[in-house]
């Protein structure tokens, strides 16, 4: 618990600093984070005997993130995102020169890495530019993380105190419906408080964001648990002592970020 608490303390400081220290720090930090998380995903999959194209995947993942981030800095036409396609689809050609009994499994999991890891981080990064396409604003990314952390904390505390009814025992035996709604309640409280601090949007927008984060953040946790169970692995990695890997810490973000971005974009713009 001591190791877990120390890691959580420094991890929180780094996360908050990455958001509050400006757009370039925000972009570079989440580029590195997305690449490390993608590396962790490929390493995890490799343990199952499947051989995703790690180097091509990491290069393509970096390019996808940089191209998506560049839209806000360089203001180029969206059509230039198509430049990612040759690199992404080069995995098919590379697989031709490998002797493997399951070539399309290798190809498939290379692509799954983009969808499951890289693209969600792109959407989270884009939250910082949602209010103004060319100007960074930390309000939405900060609010997202605070609500996500509030949901995780509330779910744990309510689950320990009142948890009786299993939420999804097959993939996560410790999660309960009481913990789920407790986490959502805590996240909504944080959202309501933020509505007084960040007044650019009405309270119901922030509360809607909290409900989505609690719902899809929990689903993200379950999906990552399903992945680890299918590979008979306890933790996705060991980068964060006492917490496991990056995928263990950002599993909620991976499913919630694209949904929250779509919600905010549709109702605000």
UniProtKB/TrEMBL annotation:
InterPro entries: PC_trans. It is an enzyme of class 2 (transferase). One of its GO terms (cellular component) is plasma membrane. Keywords: Cell membrane, Lipid biosynthesis, Lipid metabolism, Membrane, Nucleotidyltransferase, Phospholipid biosynthesis, Phospholipid metabolism, Transferase, Transmembrane, Transmembrane helix. Its EC number is 2.7.7.41. GO terms for molecular function: phosphatidate cytidylyltransferase activity. It is found in: Cell membrane. Pfam families: CTP_transf_1. Pathway: Lipid metabolism; Phospholipid metabolism; CDP-diacylglycerol biosynthesis; CDP-diacylglycerol from sn-glycerol 3-phosphate: step 3/3. Its main location: membrane. The chain crosses the membrane at residues 5-22, 57-74, 80-97, 109-130, 136-158, 179-198, 204-223, 250-268. It catalyses: a 1,2-diacyl-sn-glycero-3-phosphate + CTP + H(+) = a CDP-1,2-diacyl-sn-glycerol + diphosphate. GO terms for biological process: CDP-diacylglycerol biosynthetic process. It is a multi-pass membrane protein. Belongs to the CDS family. This is Phosphatidate cytidylyltransferase.
